[in-house]
Specification:
7-stranded mixed β-sheet; 6-stranded mixed β-sheet; globular; 13 strands; 3 helices; alpha/beta; about 35% strand
C-alpha cells in the first residue's frame, strides 16, 4: 500500500492496480488539486474543497463515488460511513467519517470532523484501526489538542495528520511528543504495523500524481 498526500484532506491510497482517493479537491475549488485516475472516490463533505470525484476520473478509470453514510463493497474494498455534524465556510454541514478496509488494513478517515465527540455507535464501530487520518488545523475542524486527544483515544497503529499549516502541525507534534521527519509518501504492508502504537507520520504535500 502506498499513501500520498496532496494537501487539505486529499489523499491517494494505492494497492496493486486499485486506487482510492480521499476527499479529492474539485475543479471549482480555489485550492490546487491533482489529476490521476481512481477506482473509488471517498467524499466526506459536500463542498468543492472535498468533493471533486470528477477530478480523479482519468483515462479508463472512472471512480465509484462514496458520498455519505452506509456500507459499501466495491471491487473487494469494504467501506463504512458514519455521519457526524460539521461546519465549513461558516455553514453547518454533514460530515462522514469513513472506515475503509483493504489488504487487511483498516484505515479510518475523520474528514472535516468539527468535534472530538463521536456517538457511541460510531466509537464502537471504529475499533482496531491501523491508520488514522486526522485533521489538526483548528478553526472549523479539530484543534491540534483535540486532534491529539481523540487520536490517542482511538489507539491506531499509525496517525497521519492532515489539513494543517506549519503552526498547527508544530502544535500537534508538540502535543504528541513526536518529531518525525516528513516523508514523501508512506509505503506499508500489514506486517509493518506490528508493534506500532500511535506512531505519527507526516506526509509532505505533493503537487501532482
Amino acid at each position: 500500500m502506498v499513501i500520498t498526500y496532496f494537501g487539505k484532506q486529499f489523499f491517494k491510497v494505492q494497492f496493486g492496480d486499485t486506487v482510492v482517493a480521499y476527499n479529492p479537491i474539485g475543479k471549482e475549488s480555489k485550492l490546487k488539486g491533482a489529476r490521476f485516475g481512481a477506482d473509488i472516490a471517498v467524499v466526506s463533505l459536500n463542498h468543492p474543497d472535498f468533493s471533486g470525484a470528477e477530478s480523479v476520473a482519468y483515462g479508463e478509470k472512472k471512480p465509484f463515488a462514496v458520498t455519505g453514510p452506509g456500507e459499501y463493497e466495491i471491487n473487494g474494498v469494504s467501506v463504512r460511513g458514519f455521519q457526524t455534524q460539521s461546519q465549513y465556510a461558516k455553514e453547518s454541514k454533514l460530515n462522514t467519517v469513513y472506515l475503509v478496509e483493504l489488504e487487511g488494513i483498516k484505515l479510518c478517515f475523520l474528514g472535516q470532523l468539527h468535534t472530538a465527540e463521536l456517538s457511541e455507535k460510531t466509537r464502537e464501530a471504529l475499533d482496531g484501526i491501523d491508520i488514522l487520518f486526522v485533521p489538526v488545523g483548528g478553526n472549523e475542524t479539530l484543534s491540534p489538542l483535540e486532534a491529539h486527544k481523540l487520536a490517542t483515544k482511538m489507539e491506531p497503529n499509525i496517525i497521519i495528520p492532515m489539513d494543517y499549516d506549519d503552526k498547527t502541525l508544530k502544535e500537534f507534534l508538540k502535543e504528541s511528543g513526536k518529531n518525525p521527519k516528513p516523508e514523501e509518501k508512506l509505503t506499508i504492508k500489514k506486517k509493518d504495523l506490528e508493534g506500532k502504537t500511535g506512531e505519527v507520520i507526516v506526509l509532505v504535500q505533493q503537487s501532482n500524481a
